[in-house]
Specification:
CATH class of the largest domain in chain A: Alpha Beta
Radius of gyration of chain A: 27 Å
Largest interface: A-B, 47 and 57 residues
Mean pLDDT of chain B: 81
Low-confidence stretches of chain B: 1-9
Number of helices of chain A: 4
CATH topology of the largest domain in chain A: Nucleotidyltransferase, domain 5
Shape of chain A: elongated
Strand order of the largest sheet of chain B: 4-3-2-5-6
Distance between the termini of chain A: 90 Å
Number of domains of chain B: 2
Low-confidence stretches of chain A: none
Strand content of chain A: 15-25%
Oligomer: heterodimer
Order of helices and strands of chain A: HEHEEEHEHE
Helix content of chain B: 25-40%
Helix content of chain A: 25-40%
Largest sheet of chain B: 5 strands, mixed
Distance between the termini of chain B: 42 Å
Number of helices of chain B: 4
Chain lengths: ~140, ~160
């Protein structure tokens, strides 16, 4: 009788270990599953209907090449650290960011991470209309 | 899983006696295979090329949209879709098809945005060129894929 009990206990342990291993594999692989985030960008022609009168935008520049860059706000040098850019954009637009658009102007050889950072800062400033300026045709 | 297992050395002939076989091991193996294939299909997502995404704090969670076009732009500026490289003409043709599929009759705007996954070290002119193509093909809605700012940095 006790032999049967022992065998049954052993059997239950085997399934338990199986399940533990399955869970272990599942949780080990979980960090590899990377979920992207997204930043929506409305393109120029489709972003607004017929404008009544053109409004002068806040121009945020990303100048330089590669990772050696600096930011500008309306041609004024802001330096290479984008922290605080959102506040400057907000102040430049006098808080009227529902109406005044922000335009990101970038040099062609700048790495995309810096351009997106400028876009992110513009969004953080509370701007409703943020867009990219087209590069001059070569 | 509930079947009994014998203690000590297993007799391989015992399982075959009477035409039966070990259901427990069979179920275990099946579960392992299911988990393996689930993980492999998730990890080997063809639509997402290996690019190091930039970080953005204002980005929102991306949801899976069936049929959506995902353009990957690598560090060297190559445009990859589903593991294949596209030139300007090919990309334009694909965008025209996407426009036909995503813009309902009478609408100006596509019902879904194109997702552009750009490597953080790609030069801006390569990205600008793809945005230009989107505009030429009247695909006004695009979104840039970004990385979660709280995600750990990958070793290269």
């Amino acid at each position: 009788m006790s032999e049967i009990m022992k065998e049954e206990e052993h059997g239950a342990f085997t399934s338990m270990i199986d399940i533990v291993f399955l869970l272990l594999i599942f949780f080990i692989l979980q960090p590899f599953k990377e979920v992207d985030r997204k930043l929506p960008v409305p393109l120029k022609e489709g972003s607004s209907k017929q404008p009544v009168a053109p409004i002068e935008p806040v121009r945020v520049g990303v100048r330089g090449r590669g990772n050696e860059i600096f930011y500008t706000v309306d041609s004024r040098n802001f330096g290479s650290n984008p922290a605080g850019l959102a506040q400057v954009i907000h102040d430049r637009a006098l808080g009227d960011l529902d109406r005044i658009p922000v335009q990101i102007e970038s040099d062609p050889e700048v790495h995309f991470a810096h351009v997106l950072r400028a876009f992110d800062e513009a969004c953080k400033s509370g701007a409703e209309k943020v867009g990219f300026a087209a590069l001059p045709k070569r | 899983m509930g079947a009994k297992r014998k203690k000590g050395k297993a007799d391989p002939s015992a399982a075959c006696e009477g035409g039966g076989f070990e259901m427990t091991s069979m179920i275990d193996v099946t579960f392992l295979l299911i988990i393996f294939f689930m993980c492999v299909t998730e990890l080997a997502d063809q639509s997402k090329a290996k690019v190091e995404l930039p970080v953005a704090e204002k980005a929102e969670e991306d949801t899976h949209i069936p049929g959506r076009v995902i353009i990957n732009i690598t560090e060297k500026g190559e445009r990859m879709i589903m593991g294949q490289e596209y030139d300007d003409a090919g990309l334009s043709r694909l965008m025209q098809l996407e426009r036909e599929a995503s813009v309902k009759p009478g609408d100006q705007f596509p019902s879904r945005a194109i997702l552009i996954r750009v490597d953080k070290n790609t030069e801006y002119e390569d990205v600008e060129h793809v945005m230009q193509l989107c505009m030429e093909n009247k695909l006004w809605r695009i979104a840039f894929a970004t990385k979660d700012p709280n995600a750990p940095e990958k070793r290269r």
